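Morning!

As promised:
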Amino acid sequence: MLGGMQDWPLRIMRLLDHAEREHGQREIVSRWSAGGETRTNWAGIARDSRRLANALERLGLRRGDRVATLAMNHSRHLVSWYGTIGMGAIIHTINPRLFDEQLAYIANHAEDRVLFYDAAFAPVVERLKPQLATVEHYVCFDPVAGDGFEELLAGQSENYRWVEGDEREPAMLCYTSGTTGSPKGVLYEHRSTVLHAMAEVQPDVFGLSRRAVAMPIVPMFHAAAWGLPFAAPIAGCKVVFTADYQPKTIYDLMHQEGVTHTAAVPTVWLGMMQYVDANGGDFGKLELLTIGGSAAPPAMIEYFMKRDVQVSHAWGMTEMSPIGTSGGLPHDWEEMSWEDRLDLTAKQGRAPFGVELRVIDEQGNPRPCDGQSSGRLQARGPWVIHQYFKEEQKAVDEEGWFDTGDVAVIHPDGTMQITDRAKDVIKSGGEWISSIELENAAVGCPGVAEAAAVGVHHPKWDERPLLLVVKKPGSDVTPEAILQHLSNQVAKWWLPDEILFVESLPHTATGKLLKTALREQYKTHKLPSAA
Amino acid sequence: MLGGMQDWPLRIMRLLDHAEREHGQREIVSRWSAGGETRTNWAGIARDSRRLANALERLGLRRGDRVATLAMNHSRHLVSWYGTIGMGAIIHTINPRLFDEQLAYIANHAEDRVLFYDAAFAPVVERLKPQLATVEHYVCFDPVAGDGFEELLAGQSENYRWVEGDEREPAMLCYTSGTTGSPKGVLYEHRSTVLHAMAEVQPDVFGLSRRAVAMPIVPMFHAAAWGLPFAAPIAGCKVVFTADYQPKTIYDLMHQEGVTHTAAVPTVWLGMMQYVDANGGDFGKLELLTIGGSAAPPAMIEYFMKRDVQVSHAWGMTEMSPIGTSGGLPHDWEEMSWEDRLDLTAKQGRAPFGVELRVIDEQGNPRPCDGQSSGRLQARGPWVIHQYFKEEQKAVDEEGWFDTGDVAVIHPDGTMQITDRAKDVIKSGGEWISSIELENAAVGCPGVAEAAAVGVHHPKWDERPLLLVVKKPGSDVTPEAILQHLSNQVAKWWLPDEILFVESLPHTATGKLLKTALREQYKTHKLPSAA
């Protein structure tokens, strides 16, 4: 027996239909990388998406085909998403910061038929063209001269009936910029995206109402700008896009447009903090700052908390659409001490409804949520990956759990705390040392600009920590001073066996420490303790 | 081609699993009708629901069977919902305020096998027993003596694996207390309920975070307490139930428990206003007051707005799970005048994502959203009815639209405004006169306690308005004074042809004016103008 309610598939285009119908006049602002702003609204996005759907059909695109973008955040990029999805094709955002061979691999693996790109990436596109086997049409979003995206839309009818179908059909393709192996594609569905967006608007995640002015500073090629372009139409909020990440640009947009909600990786906020410290000023109407992508240093959290900006430390990954946890305030926030608030905000928050999390030991047994028992973090839910694009094997175990590759503890109140990446954890005498905790502690030492902890082979302990440190300019910090500092923060057996100063550390295209390269480089390094 | 994300059916029990896992210690408070309070938490609700699921299986209940309740709001009632749904059966809330023959009809039509009831309704149950053909087990939630609900749970295992299945399976049955014909059952599904709950927590609907303390004063038999018992576990908020609706009890609970969010029909708020006016005091931590069930008088909205309590005027119906619209603040609220804010709040708000609304003319053509064009209000969406329980015919037209029976206009900003019930509208000379607007205007006249406007046959105009008025005690208001008052508020041709004073007006079991009875009573009434 089935129930008596309506059949209303969770299709992404219903998000845009809702925004057009209920919030059509709410603005979408775009700051272009070449400077200057343009303004449209949800009705305009919907109208242009229908024109693009017609244009793509005219180009011969069919249901399920892939349409790629190589672009920063702006309204035309948004139109390319909804127009592509609306005609039944799959939008494939490519990270322009990847190396050429990765870009070519991804576009060929996805079999992209169209590539929309920013003028800023035209040189990349020119270099890549000979290698892109399947791309038939190249369209520039903002050409300096000649035809581009607007010319593709010109003359197209504003009438189009979105392609309907099963809510489990794919709508979007995002490749993970893994640190090992070939990039792998995550194929988001209409259903997964709509449910994720519904979860995101709730108060304890992004808290988007129609009064909000949201500025995603996270790029649209980075896990769909954390889903904000799909959550915003549910709320009917105003959206501010910027293709330019200069602190001054972000600062000016925030004030000019009255931004209340924003989200970005810690690097962006570091730049903003430096800018405001140097130039004075405040954060205007900003209410909620979501920090994700990598762990935010406590000093950053405190900086914004002191300025009455709520900080939500979120955690997720491309394989999770990406939201896994978020840092809404607990019910006893008012009664907490400043230190307890900082401590809690530095952790990764709690899972919203729709995400199940657990940590397991090396035998695969669930560990207690006691804030002590660390283990591999696993996830389940309607917006968590089941299978990578074109892969034969499932990405989950027999019980449907996806292994995130993170090591974490879960506290009794449900707060999750990432302690390390599973592959970065340092295995010393059968116990685990968190490389991230060592690095965070080292960065708190005066004179230390950046630090990386890697496990190096040790004849007795299997692995022992080696700490690589980049000094701040002009600093004369010594290994002894760093060890002294660390000894107040971590267990004695966690202390690195050696500290080496280096000029710089390698990073991935998305700004994370490239530990694989470091491990490779120091594979045969002899620790003094191993002598 | 399907996408690569997980299969995770939207089953109601996942709401409770989430609350137990992430917010297990958050309290559930119950104030009993006999006085006294009990406290449990989400973990306790989940544990008792598993015990009840075991108990129901022991009683021989099977998947799809119906379990009825005749009860006010309290934690045991909540356990009866989740325990029943968890073992695959259907929870059927019955409105104890209905007449005996309606109660018997409903229980027999639903083929309820178990009836859980409050001690306060024991006399009703005793009277009904001989007529209830299918009920095998009667269990009192709070017996004064003898075995009851707790004894049913006693000794049952706390381990139970919720019955899994299709997300379109039925989970709950609610009959509409229609003013005509037999009551009809609306069969909510797992999917419809979960999506409705996800929509409800968003800022512009109930805005529930884990910090919230929600007190649904709307009864659990009234469209599932507007869905709050399903939305609360998503947020992980504290819930305060009361089986006693005395203003003093509500007032004391609000302050004692720190209630931030509450929802009820206007009658409850009238009582609260009178109580606070008579005794002094304030509304404590109350942030958001949701008013629904029938239209709130502007004076009530202003009363709470002046006390810094946000008022959300919501509209819905049992057939819509029930939320159709809600009154979140618009983005330009700060710039609006006090009068404009009042005007806007008095309307019914906007549709959340998941509800499509339109108004149509008498030929079925959609009318523009211009704030002027009134017509029959239709709805579509995943939590809108498709077919009544055991009915052969669909409840929707060929395009899937459900006719709400309301007459409304939609404003350019998406705000919906109910102008009348379709069957109550007064059709004069081919034009429509809103009976509700006449009544609201009349109630604003000093000395008028309550008013009902009904259309009475007229030889020239087809129908003309007759206004029935209940005077306030001691008032000497005259028909002339009322007409004078009305003439400043409505068009001249809307003015009633006759005003009659009556001792009282008939109401439905849920407190709405029983217009059918009035139309019947005055069917052959001769208006002076018809002479």
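The first helix of chain B runs from residue 13 to 23.

Hope this helps with the figure draft.
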